[in-house]
Structures are given as C-alpha cells and as structure tokens.
Amino acid sequence: MTTANTPVLHPDLTPAQRDCLDALPLTGNYVVSGPPGSGKSLLAAHRAVHLALTGRHTFLISRSNLLRQLLRGTLQGLAVPGAPVDAATGHTWIHRRFGHDAPRTEDGWFDWAELTRRAAATLGEDDAATPHLVIDEGQDLPPGFYRLVRLAAASVTVFADECQRLTETNSTLTEITDNLGRSTARAEISGNHRNTREIASLAEYFRTGGARPDLPSRGGSLPVVRHYMGNKDLADDIVTMAARQPRQRIGVIVNHLPTAADLMRRLERAGLAREPQLYSSAASSGRYRDLDLARPGVVLVHRASAKGLDFDTVVVADAESDSATDPTSATLRMAYYVMITRARERLVLGWQGGRLPRHLEGLHGWVQMR
C-alpha cells in the first residue's frame, strides 16, 4: 500500500481547496480549520475518498445525523469505484466498532475511558480492518472521543471551526490536537464561497473569537430583521418566498420544535409546489428523519441540527425565544454566527412580540428593519 499522495482531479474545488487537500499525506493525523463557507465539509468528503482509494475502509463522521445525510449525498456524487467509504455519525461508528452495548456513563454519553481501554487492549490485532476516519464539524465531539480514535483508527483527519461550537460536549482545536497526539499536524483553509459580503459582514458582528476572515467579494441584498404578528404571518411570508423562488432551497431554522410543527402544518395546508420537509432528531425513520436536502423547497430544522448545512435563503424563525438571554453571551453569539452563515443569498431574522429582542438591536447598517 502506498503512502504517497494519490490526488484525484476534483473540478468542483477551488485552487486553494485542491492545494489544501493535496498537501495532506495519506498517513498521520491532521486538524484542518477554516471559517464558514470555506468548504470544510466538501474537503472532508474528498479527503475521505482519497484515503479510501488506498483500499482501507474509511468513515466520514459527523455528530449530526442531518449532516451525515448531506455528506452521504456528497460521497455518492463523487462516485469513485472501489473506494470503501461510508458516512456515519459518531454514535453509529462507535456502535459498529464496539457493539450496541458500548458502555455509557451516568449522563448517557459514552464511557470514553472504558472504550479507550478496550481499543488499547486490541491494538494491532487486525491492522487491515482498522479504518481511516475523517471527521467533519469536529468541534462538536468531546475530547474523550479523540483520545479513543487515536488508538482505534489508522489515521484521523478533523475539519473544524471552534467558533461554531454549539453542542454541550465539544472540543477546541487545541484539545483535538492534543488528544490526537503530539505528531498531529495543523492546516488551515481560508475563503468564504457560500455567503454574500452582506451576510458575512453581519455574521462577523456575532463572531466570538479567532482571526477575522476575509469577506467574500460577491455582493447581494442586506439581511432583513422582520417583525411577524404571529406564526400565520410568518408562514405566509415563507409561502411567498417559495412561490417567488421555486427552484431555490429555503431553510427555516427554529429554536423550539413546537414552532416548527405549527409552521409545518400551515405550510402543508398552503399547497406549496413542493412538499415542505421537517427534520426531527426524535424520529427513528421516515419522512421526519430522512430528508432530501438537495431538492428545492422549504426545510424546517432545529438550530442544533443546522451545522454544516446551507440554503439559498435562511429564515431564523423565532429570534424572540432568545430575548431573555444576555446578548453578550458567547453561546448565543455562536448560535447566530452559525445560523446566519447557513445563508447563500438571502437572510431573514424573524421575531414576534412587542419589543425587538436585545441581541437584534444595534444592527442598523448591517440589516434592513421591516
């Protein structure tokens, strides 16, 4: 088996993305960081295919099941024969590696210390079956996961952005690197190929740290902060957007699932040209679990599942739900940074109630108020 780079021509990558991909050897552990829109998920899929072409099974891992579905579609689009690669969630991979009775701690999360002990006990027993792992949105997995995969994988490549840490169990770039071992190398990918300059500028208002990325050159309309009289008013506006842009994808991001369910009922009754989709992590299968994220139309998702996704238009449906939160809170600012950067062309920050939420004050110049 060769350890030299075997780059595949990928015309959908920018020169900077190809350079980043081709600079990663096929052995060793790597942490690749970059801002929203830099193409980390796309690069993760290409990296997984490169590694799989060595003949060793490769898993492309995310914490979110919805992101797994998106990554699975990307892998299918690459369609490289003979490359043994699968998209999986971290939970699915652990169950596949350690069984469905993998030990857990009292908080319901995996017992990382015990799993690491088991991995160490079998180290080197079946080297041919030891997979490569590529992890997207790696900041959403805990440090214990990286201590485990250091022993349970032939190589680990992590794509991450610590300014997008939204989960209750997450890791900084330093924690990921330290837990993968001293030989772990770091790389960066820059650029924003998703957002307009106006959307990226608004996202910068909410960013919590790190170096300021270059703003995209592509321009567009100002994001909108819009007051809705109620869910009917909000649903009517979404219906109008869908009718005006029938070939585009509209992501409606909510903080409360009852809001999503109510909007779904209203949109279904509206008779949209394409049936709206709703994702629920509580569903085990079926229409609320398995979505077609590539087709045009309206998709309703909870903000916890929005990481890694993108839409032509994004509607943040219930910004008033954050009214009682300290507007300087890092958690709040990260949430809006992530939600805003999901939008390719248009962004609406919607709110209801009698007073503009505090975290949406002071945005004059970055947004239109309606």
UniProtKB/TrEMBL annotation:
Coiled-coil regions listed: none
InterPro entries, per database record: DNA_helicase_UvrD/REP, P-loop_NTPase
Top-rank taxon: Bacteria
PANTHER family according to UniProt: ATP-DEPENDENT DNA HELICASE SRS2, UVRD / RECB / PCRA DNA HELICASE FAMILY MEMBER
Name recorded for this polypeptide: AAA family ATPase
